[in-house]
Design brief:
2 copies of one chain form a homodimer. With about 270 residues, chain A is of the alpha+beta class. Chain A has helices spanning about 5-10, 20-35, 50-55, 60-70, 135-140, 170-175, 190-200, 215-220, and strands at about 75-80, 80-85, 90-95, 120-130, 150-160, 160-170, 205-215, 230-240, 245-255, 260-265. Chain A contains 8 helices and 10 strands. The interface between A and B is large, with 48 and 47 residues. The structure holds a DNA duplex (19 and 19 nucleotides).
DNA sequence: CAGTGGTCTAGACCACGCT
DNA sequence: GCGTGGTCTAGACCACTGT
């Protein structure tokens, strides 16, 4: 095989031609072991020090090889424990029914995607704060910039696995003094639509814009994202009677364990 | 802080306390300069050697900081030339109106996102092929596996910039011999809904599932994606009278220049 | 405690893009 | 030729996870 000369190159001391960098060749070899099943999903790959011995390179070179695999989402690292082949995660599907008051919600057999709403395994870490409206937010709410809004920041987890970061805003006027402004009532039964309804606000339309990008480091840490996994971003705007009653400037989902589902009814086509 | 003794120990050897790693602090500072506009989009950031001088750290530390920004998709590097703040691309917004027959479509002033449908600057590279239904496709169309389908593969470009890869399927029975089966008629005026309507098929519902992931190498090349940019994936299923009449197993969008918009009407909430 | 990965240094030489 | 980033070495010490 052509691999023989590659193996020989590992044994050389320094001169290795850079036709293919060594860290790439090492990454290729480790990737082969993982995809071929020699290192099963969820198992530890050899430690950095044993890899330096096996390939006879400096530790920095091994780390670069592992960086490649991390960027591909193939492995994930835990400080002090080791580096694992990435296990396959269950996918959380978020469909239009997440805005319904209450309904039967079954998993999708074909993909294994599941909805966890109201299942009792969903925990919410909430943080409420009063903030002044930025010009962008003020325009969406049709108020003066600086008007006080209620900011609601959430980290939602399922089975202890973080699944969603949310930053949402409400006009303080419409929620102040109501149970909706109480952070201890999280998670909201029925979601934000039901909560607004309890205040007499009838939601008429929700608009969401979906984007994707690589996470910031903070997001990657909060969502425990391995490197190489992007995030799905949904920006939500909730309307009642043509007025904007809620804005979620960013709902951040880990793309390796979430997908969004939408329906476009006939009268829109 | 309780960490003071620890911090003191660091100061013996290194000026900066490691409460936050040096490379992350440097990444934060560079990110600030880029997002604040001190380094405009498309401009070169300082070279690695000048950054080692400015922050007084080893070159490896500077490179790690830049790796952070690259993983976030904030900068891109060209060997021998330098590292750039990633230029902002015009964003193509795809809303529900893309399935409407014909309507006024304006840009969104707040984000600069635009729709290019029917604007004449959209080119389509089409490839049609007859294929046997896989078990998954057969189940969706409610036919026997192996039933012949028309496969439609598209690369859509706007102003010569590739914007979308599509793979869609139709039952050959319903389209054979019709203008819809003619690859020379791309791009389809009014989209696939209008085309189906011209065959007497009235679309009643469209369902889309949106995901994100890093691109395969082939996708990255076809869409001319720089490293660190994920793709948005939409899987579409088109219904008429409860029957599935079209399936797009993957519409692949470059996440740095596309976003998807959906509406959830009141009767769904 | 031992073993893992995380951070950082101070060098070296190579490959690429420009002028 | 010069300045850029790409690759690599050989060490050091820190921080986290286990026993």
């Amino acid at each position: 095989m052509a691999d023989e000369s590659t193996a020989d190159r590992y044994r050389e001391r320094v001169p290795a031609p850079h036709r293919q960098p060594r860290y790439r060749a090492i990454a290729d070899e480790l990737r082969r072991r993982i995809t071929a099943g020699a290192i099963p999903a969820g198992a530890l790959i050899p430690s950095e020090s044993s890899l330096t011995a096996e390939f006879r390179v400096a530790r920095g070179t091994i780390r670069e090889a592992i960086n490649v695999l991390r960027a591909e989402g193939l492995v994930m690292t835990e400080h002090g424990r080791g580096t694992y082949a990435r296990p396959n995660l269950p996918v959380r599907r978020l469909g239009p029914e997440r805005y319904m008051s209450q309904r039967q919600q079954d998993g999708d057999e074909t993909t294994g995607a599941r909805s966890f709403r109201n299942s009792g395994v969903e925990q919410v870490n909430a943080e409420y704060q009063e903030v002044a409206a930025t010009p962008e937010l003020a325009e969406m709410f049709e108020v003066e910039p600086g008007t006080v809004l209620l900011q609601r920041r959430l980290l939602t987890s399922v089975y202890g696995v973080p699944q969603q970061l949310t930053t949402a805003y409400y006009l303080l006027d419409t929620v102040a003094g109501t149970p909706v402004a109480d952070p201890n009532r999280e998670p909201w039964p029925g979601g934000h639509v039901a909560q607004l309804q309890s205040l007499g606000i009838l939601v008429t339309k929700i608009r969401e814009v979906v984007q994707a990008r690589m996470p910031t480091i903070d997001e990657a840490e909060a969502l425990r994202l391995p490197a190489g996994v992007p995030v799905l971003i949904a920006n939500r705007r909730t309307y009642a009677d043509g007025r904007t009653v809620e804005v979620a400037t960013s709902m951040v989902f880990p793309a390796d364990r979430a997908e969004l589902e939408y329906e476009i009814p006939a009268d829109l086509t």
